[in-house]
Design a protein that fits this description.
CATH architecture of the largest domain: 3-Layer(aba) Sandwich
Distance between the termini: 44 Å
Order of helices and strands: EHEHEEHEHEHEHEHHEHEEHE
Number of strands: 12
Structural class: alpha/beta
Amino acid sequence: MVKIVLAEPRGFCAGVRRAISLVEESLERFGAPVYVRHEIVHNKHVIADLEKKGAVFVNELEEADPSHPLIFSAHGVAEDVVRRAEEMGLKFIDATCPLVGKVHYQIRKMAAAGKKIVIIGKASHPEIVGTRGQIPADYDARIISTVEEVDTLPFSPEDEVGFVTQTTLSVNDTKEIISRLKARFPSLETLKQNDICYATTNRQQAVGQLAKECPTVIVIGSKNSSNSRQLREVAIKSGAGEAFLIDDASELDWENLDIKNPIGISAGASAPEYLVENLLVEFKRRYGIIDVSRLVITEEHVNFRL
């Protein structure tokens, strides 16, 4: 009998549910096609499901048909994208996660106060592109992703410095960067709350605990999903001997899977629950009886209105 431990919470967060619902409701209200700038969330199954319903994903505003709605992804967009959409006469709907929107507000506030700005995150990630795009391109803001990069910042200890972070980063890694920033810049503007979202924090804590009980951890999520990749890394750093990041059951290395010990399963914030259910079905098909238990660290009751 294979023992499986499910991490809770896992899967969709409130921001992802809201973004997907905006696409689905737009399709119902306006009919297909509805255009979406970039992937609404980073999950290939979600994208495929929405494409079947009539969503068309584009990279540039010019690819959208002005006679149909255009939706901005949950990762947020730069202000110049919004301005260009308005100038082009596009009917657009903003699906930016409210927690990302909070970061946008913070960075605009810091810029208005004339602070030097540090953005913690991956420079190429759509969320960071959108966050950086909230302030003028010539404004003195630097993007970093490691502790070592703190020491390369061209700011002096006397400068008024503020920072914001990508919402899907590793909680522990970000703490180290922030700690170094505080040591280098005594007047650093700190946040009342961490920019890393509640869902990212909860899922990382659950996987960290899961890894202490399960030598093998499976994370369901797409490779381009930052929060899903972070879950795999948290599992490894927390003691898991092996940690897999898979889109679905078909990608798992079943031949080399250790089934003698408990197997932990979680899912990134953009991964639908049916992928977890399908994985359990495949376990049962291959191994017969499975013993499924839950590791619950908290319950989530967050919802964002459309």
